[in-house]
């Protein structure tokens, strides 16, 4: 089966695309997109990879599910298209960056600008039915994205993984901690942030400090 994904990722993930679970997942996703409104648009399903070639991956941020409202999801976790109001978690991410990095709050919630600098913005599930959160979970996407995390861990070095919230923290067992850096905190959602588990984590300045120590270019957050 031909998967439209950035060539360097395609080369590293080829064995996944050939597995029976991925064939079944593909059939499921095709039927869902034919019979229901689903997000993101088909061409954006693998956008996180398309903006961040394999060898250029410096930072990995793990989300759970795409946004399920109209015109929100663009294939990158936590990101929305230009001109779309910022969802609550993204608002809190930008508030932390404003304090941590002393940067103005951005107008656009489109995080393609991060991805283009080597930040892989990976949702565990890459598609969703409109207005039905979690509707495409447990269909095979998680197996695929776990394989992505393992591949990054096994074949790259010095990647910084930002694991926000309980779901993302569980992915730490897929990561070789002797080769990579893991920063954890509460989730940026209001529920977690308002309990003091998000604000002040300084993950953005800490990431840049780690990159600098490794002789790599910092991220312009």
From TrEMBL:
Any one GO MF annotation of this record: uracil DNA N-glycosylase activity
Subcellular localization: Cytoplasm
Pfam name, any one: UDG
Keyword list, A-Z: Cytoplasm, DNA damage, DNA repair, Glycosidase, Hydrolase
Domain of life (superkingdom): Bacteria
Protein role: Excises uracil residues from the DNA which can arise as a result of misincorporation of dUMP residues by DNA polymerase or due to deamination of cytosine.
Alphabetical list of HAMAP family matching this protein: UDG
PANTHER family: URACIL-DNA GLYCOSYLASE
Stated name of the protein: Uracil-DNA glycosylase
Gene expressing this chain: ung
